[in-house]
């Protein structure tokens, strides 16, 4: 049995039970009420019991979790109030990530891994356009053209557009207007700098599931200040992570502690303008990922920003103060109060508006999975530093991190763009039979020196064939993923 995690203290200490931590959670409250510090306190607690954490850091103020805190009167006061006799400052092992590769190790995914459905959402495609994008992926798969980065997809779109007539018999109608819309969408993404995200080396999700030599879970912090400027990219990116984790991790049932805990800050962005079909699928992923041992904690200002179907799945709750000036605020206060299991000693609705900074209404799940009665409580002080670290400190941590050097240099291997570019004359596409080797030459056939015999050639060919097999292996793998994601995310659209 893993020790319970002390998070806050009301009339009694309030513990988050590790075996219930995969039943998800919510941290809500108006701006400046203590959400980030609460997240920090929870993340630290998970790290201490060896659970890795992933959290997006929108304001840069979560980076302090990497360093021990320092004495200050406010912390001292809280320690005293909560009678935390053995309180000691400590930092957590941290890996910094950054889609833009500036404030952390670059996080990348291949176009193929992102898949047509999420990409379609990112590009604001309508059903018809998304259908065409899906076909383009299928054609690439059938012809073993790897879609790794943005230019692969662009080349593929161009290629399919140019040969739309020939593809028509096998794949159906491919409208030039849809191809054009996708191309324009891609340009837009590129202008937001999102093209950096697509390519290799792609993130190996295992790298998020690390512990250090003391058995403490690594806290993965995604620098999201810049990413946050493009809310849709931010939301899609996190959705991609969640679904990839879901695909990747095996079923574990109800583990004694989670495999990973995922904090989703500014969670309202995930649900803003989300088409109903996708929202339903997000709800489904959130529900199902529990049995993979992943706990998802949504952090947001207003609990009403999270759809009710998702809210209903968030078992562990910390509600910081809400203001109640406007009618919508009052509605939020009532809604937030009503979601708690009532406590005759606590007038939740009234208390929510009175809570001090770092104080909250708290209810965690008990060992049977039932919500505890709501308590008014003071959140524990964090053991690590409150607020950001310096750029120098960040740089140092990046250099000594467990993934230093793994992702820092992009790799641009032979893929759709290179193959299509080198195909002079672009012969008409040969129909491919799914599951069969394509009639067209394999992608490495275009590499100079690949056709000759000779020992050196053999070795290279051998290596190339292996890498092709690997690539195919992963592309087949991705196809399955897309299939699953398709059923999860695509719904019955087609
Ligand atoms: N549990 C706590 N222990 C000690 N100090 C706290 C605690 N919670 C909050 N504070 C103090 O309150 C300040 C604001 O908290 P925090 O940054 O967590 O608010 P927030 O709700 O995340 O705000 P925003 O919406 O602006 O992101 C912190 O910088 C810290 O000084
Ligand atoms: Mg905050």
Which key terms come to mind for this protein?
494 residues, disordered C terminus, binds magnesium ion, 11% strand, globular, single chain, binds adenosine-5'-triphosphate, alpha/beta, 12-stranded mixed beta sheet
Q: What would you note in describing this structure?
A:
This protein is an alpha/beta fold. It is built from 16 helices and twelve strands. The chain has helices at 35-48, 73-81, 111-122, 127-142, 150-162, 164-171, 176-191, 231-248, 268-271, 276-289, 308-311, 327-338, 348-354, 391-399, 416-422, 455-490; strands spanning 5-9, 13-16, 25-28, 53-57, 94-98, 105-106, 219-223, 260-264, 294-300, 316-319, 359-363, 375-379. The protein has a twelve-stranded mixed β-sheet, with helices on both faces. Strand 1 and strand 2 form a beta hairpin. Helix 3 packs parallel to helix 16 (455-490) and helix 4 (127-142) crosses helix 7. The longest helix is centred in the C-terminal third of the chain and has 36 residues, at 455-490. The radius of gyration is 25 Å and the shape is globular. Bound molecules: adenosine-5'-triphosphate and magnesium ion. Magnesium ion binds at residues 35-36, 59.
Can you give the mean pLDDT?
A: 85
Low-confidence stretches: 424-494
How widely separated are the two ends? 47 Å
Taking all Cα atoms into account, the compactness measure Rg is 25 Å
List the helices and strands and how they pair.
Blueprint: E1 5-9, E2 13-16, E3 25-28, H1 35-48, E4 53-57, H2 73-81, E5 94-98, E6 105-106, H3 111-122, H4 127-142, H5 150-162, H6 164-171, H7 176-191, E7 219-223, H8 231-248, E8 260-264, H9 268-271, H10 276-289, E9 294-300, H11 308-311, E10 316-319, H12 327-338, H13 348-354, E11 359-363, E12 375-379, H14 391-399, H15 416-422, H16 455-490
Parallel strand pairs: 3-9, 3-10, 4-7, 4-8, 5-6, 5-7, 8-9
Antiparallel strand pairs: 1-2, 1-12, 10-11, 11-12
This protein binds adenosine-5'-triphosphate and magnesium ion.
């Amino acid at each position: 049995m893993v020790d319970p995690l002390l998070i806050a203290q009301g009339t009694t200490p309030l513990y988050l039970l590790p075996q219930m931590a995969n039943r998800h959670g919510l941290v809500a409250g108006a701006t400046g009420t203590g959400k980030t510090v609460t997240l920090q306190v929870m993340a630290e607690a998970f790290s201490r019991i060896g659970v890795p954490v992933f959290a997006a850091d929108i304001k840069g103020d979560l980076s302090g979790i990497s360093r021990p805190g320092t004495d200050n009167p406010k912390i001292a006061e809280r320690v005293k109030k909560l009678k935390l006799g053995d309180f000691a400052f400590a930092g957590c092992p941290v890996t910094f990530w950054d889609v833009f590769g500036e404030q952390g190790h670059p996080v990348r995914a291949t176009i193929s891994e992102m898949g047509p459905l999420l990409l379609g959402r990112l590009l604001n495609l309508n059903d018809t356009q998304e259908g065409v994008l899906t076909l383009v992926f299928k054609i690439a798969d059938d012809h073993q053209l790897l879609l790794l980065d943005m230019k692969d997809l662009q080349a593929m779109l161009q290629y399919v557009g140019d040969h739309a007539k020939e593809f028509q018999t096998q794949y159906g109608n491919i409208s030039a207007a849809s191809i054009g819309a996708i191309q324009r969408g891609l340009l837009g993404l590129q202008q937001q700098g999102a093209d950096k995200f697509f390519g290799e080396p792609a993130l190996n999700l295992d790298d998020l599931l690390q512990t250090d030599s003391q058995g403490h879970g690594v806290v993965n912090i995604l620098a999201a200040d810049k990413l946050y400027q493009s809310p849709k990219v931010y939301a899609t990116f996190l959705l991609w992570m969640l679904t990839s984790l879901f695909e990747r991790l095996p079923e574990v049932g109800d583990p004694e502690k989670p495999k990973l805990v995922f904090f989703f800050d500014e969670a309202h962005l995930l649900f803003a303008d989300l088409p109903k079909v996708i929202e339903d699928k997000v709800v489904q992923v959130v529900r199902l990922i529990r049995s993979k041992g992943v706990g998802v904690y949504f952090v947001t200002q207003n609990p009403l920003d999270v759809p009710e179907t998702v809210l209903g799945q968030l078992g562990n709750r910390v509600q910081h103060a809400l203001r109640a000036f406007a009618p919508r605020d009052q509605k939020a206060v009532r809604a937030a109060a009503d979601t708690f299991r009532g406590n005759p000693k606590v007038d939740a609705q009234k208390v929510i508006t009175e809570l001090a900074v770092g104080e909250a209404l708290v209810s965690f799940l008990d060992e049977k999975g039932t919500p505890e009665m709501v308590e008014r409580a003071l959140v524990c002080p964090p053991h690590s530093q409150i607020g950001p670290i310096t750029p120098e400190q960040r740089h140092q941590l990046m250099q000594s991190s467990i993934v230093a050097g793994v992702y820092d240099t992009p790799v641009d291997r032979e893929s759709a763009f290179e193959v299509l570019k080198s195909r002079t004359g672009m012969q008409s596409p040969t129909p491919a039979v799914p599951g069969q080797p394509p009639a067209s030459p394999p992608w490495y056939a275009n590499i100079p020196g690949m056709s000759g015999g000779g020992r050196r050639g053999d070795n290279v060919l051998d290596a190339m064939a292996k890498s092709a097999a690997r690539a195919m292996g992963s592309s087949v793998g991705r196809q399955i993923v897309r299939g699953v994601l398709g059923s999860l995310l695509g719904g019955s659209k087609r």
